[in-house]
Structures are given as C-alpha cells and as structure tokens.
Design a protein that fits this description.
Length: about 220
C-alpha cells in the first residue's frame, strides 16, 4: 500500500523538493563544491522558506542512513529516489553529501547570492503563477483556442481569482527586474511554458512590459468577468 500523503510529507516532503531540483541537471556535487542544482535549491529556499533547509538536511540524512528494506519495498511504502544519473550503489553516499552541504550552508550562512534562476526547477519555483499562465494559455495550442495573444490574456483575467492575477502581476514585474538580455528572456519564457512567440512586433521583454501593464490595470481596477 503506497504511503498516505501526510506520512509522505512528514518523512520525505522536503527531501522530494531537493531531488526534484536535480531533474534534468547533473548530480555532480563534490566535497567542498555544490552542484548548480543544489545552489538553485538553496538560492530559492533561503529566500522563501529558510527553515526548510534544516528539514531537508534531516530528511536526506535519515533516508541515507535508513534506506527502505525489502518489506517496505514490497508494500510500496517508500520514497522512490528519481533517476539522477548515478549508479544505485552511489545514491546513499550522494544523499549524505547533500545533507553535509545543507548542514554547512545553515551553520556557516553560506547562501548563493541573488541571481536569475539557473535551472528549470528554479524557474518554476520562483515564478509559479507565471508558469501556470504561460503553460496554460500560451502553449502550442493557443492559436487554435484564441484569436490572438490579447484574447488569451483576457480569458485568463476573466477566469482567474483576483488574488492570483495580483500574484501574476508581481511575478511579471520581478522577471522584468532581472533585466535579462532578449535571448535570455526568451529562454526564461520557454522554461516557464510559453511555446509560441510573442506577438509582432514585440520582443520578449517588450511583450512582458505590455503584459505587466495589462495585468496591473486589471488588478487595480478590476476586469470584466
């Protein structure tokens, strides 16, 4: 019988967040050097949930010291470590290494400096509502569902709770504040789920600036619903 959600989160919830940060990224941590994936986890988590770093350290270490036995494996009552490109024989030592890095980060105050997201996980962790908006309204199917980009934005505004619209406005402003080059901004939009180009004649940053104005006005004055 698989674990119930409450038990899973109590035992493995933050461990799961750390390991998700490695999807699509190399698990190339070494003693004295963190991977880009772990830096991304720390950069975001220190800023949003600093207490969770210590929870992650504890859960990683406990899992490494007490891997699931045959009974739990047979019953399905265990956390399946995702494929991070390491041989199974190296996983426990790698988890201990991650726990050591997290412990050192907490004890020494060693926090990655603010920067633009560096991984797919970090983009989505930092801009969750923007990812929902772009992935849901600007997928490759958008031209079949809406007349144009403005119609897609209007549909989002008319069907989304105002608190989430306000959150989107903040995330768009935050993304613009990173002052990315156009090429990097296009990569960011793609990472966040946008599968079509901005409308002509706008560049990625130009369209984001237009979107910020449209969404900001909707938040201040309300949108027809």
């Amino acid at each position: 019988m698989p674990m119930k959600p409450l038990e899973h989160d109590r035992r493995y919830g933050e461990l799961d967040q750390v390991l998700r940060a490695y999807l699509g990224q190399p698990a190339d941590d070494e003693e004295g050097r963190r991977s880009a994936a772990l830096d991304a986890y720390l950069r975001h988590t220190w800023h949003t949930r600093p207490w969770a770093v210590a929870v992650a350290e504890q859960q990683l270490r406990q899992y490494a010291e007490n891997p699931p036995g045959r009974l739990r494996l047979r019953l399905g009552e265990f956390y399946p470590v995702p494929d991070v490109g390491l041989p199974e024989s190296e996983i426990q030592d790698w988890l201990r290494l991650l726990a050591d890095h997290l412990k050192a980060s907490v004890e020494d105050g060693d926090v990655p400096p603010p920067a633009a997201p560096a991984t797919h996980w970090e983009w989505h962790a930092r801009f969750p509502e923007l990812a929902q908006f772009l992935g849901g309204w600007f997928s490759q199917d958008m031209p079949d569902e809406f007349a144009d980009h403005d119609a897609a934005v209007a549909d989002y505004l008319s069907t989304t709770d105002p608190s989430l619209v306000a959150r989107l406005a903040g995330e768009v402003a935050e993304l613009l504040a990173l002052e990315l080059e156009e090429e990097d901004c296009a990569v960011a939009l793609a990472e966040l789920g946008m599968e079509i180009d901005p409308p002509a004649p706008y560049s990625p940053t130009g369209w984001l600036a237009l979107l910020a104005e449209r969404v900001g006005d909707a938040g201040r004055h309300g949108e027809d619903r």
